[in-house]
Amino acid sequence: MNLCVIGTGAITRSMLKEFQRSPVLHCTAVCSRREETGRALAEEFGLARVYTSMDEMLRDPAIDMVYVASPNSIHYGQVKAALLAGKHVICEKPFTPTVAQAQELIGLARERGLFLFEAITTAHHPHYGFIRENLPKLGRLKLVSATFCQYSSRYPALLEGRISPVLSHAFAGGALMDINLYNIHFVVGLFGTPKNVRYFPNRHETGVDTSGIVLLEYPDFLCQCTGAKDSSAQNGIQIIGQDGYMVVTPSGSNCQNVTLHLRGQESQSVQLPENPWYYEVQDIGRIVAAGDYELCYRALETTRNVVDVLEKARASAGFDF
What we know:
Layout: E1 2-6, H1 10-19, E2 26-31, H2 35-45, E3 49-51, H3 54-59, E4 65-68, H4 75-84, E5 88-92, H5 99-112, E6 116-119, H6 121-124, H7 126-134, E7 141-149, H8 155-159, H9 175-191, E8 196-203, E9 209-217, E10 222-228, E11 236-241, E12 244-251, E13 254-262, E14 268-271, H10 276-290, H11 293-317
Parallel strand pairs: 1-2, 1-4, 2-3, 4-5, 5-6, 7-10
Antiparallel strand pairs: 7-11, 8-9, 9-10, 11-12, 12-13, 13-14
Helix pairs in contact: 1-10, 4-5, 5-11, 9-11
């Protein structure tokens, strides 16, 4: 399947390295507003075509799928245009700002028989299945604690008055949407939608959340998700039950190391060597090769639920997008 990437940022480069290792997803083109940045990426990765017009790219019958890695606020419009053009889509996180937009895109993909994936590493990691399978051993759950804090290279610029899309609510940015989303995906993918959501953000003077804590209330346990772009921390996830606990590191975006601690038993640890994008691209490739649309659409239900939680979290904090 021939693929075109939209966007030339760091995440695009990480994904392009993995597309090069995929037997199914062959990236052949880049679409960029600026010819020079698109050309530089094409030369770096040996891409055959450079488009500066998305409409032109979508009209090309040689392109089967697009990978959308543009600023958060324009994901919805670009994904919709691609689906209407009959292209399969991989959309970077966050999928959309609102549930209404997410449901519209999911409906379009189903209606037109197209693959649509949110590019979220956690959902495709082999250890995510290990975690799910071992949850019953923990007994009745009590607490879940998820922390992902990563000092952003763009934060010093914000302090100097220069605003980048990733730290701007005008572009659907901020710590919740950019980094705490991984924690929420991890939790919602395992436990479903919580009964109550509250977000307590630290705000820059521009109003954007640079860090914050989301509290998720489930019928039988409580969960806190901490995310920051203005500071760093020892990241990881703990799932705590009556009979034991699990520790996941290095973060909610990468289940590379998992240790299962059960009372009265020797701890069990599992590790995997590859970066999380490798497992994401390989898994998407397997789903596409198998033509497993139903598995794709079931994953989109989790995406829809995550968008719902994010929207409720923003509403609780009084954010206007």
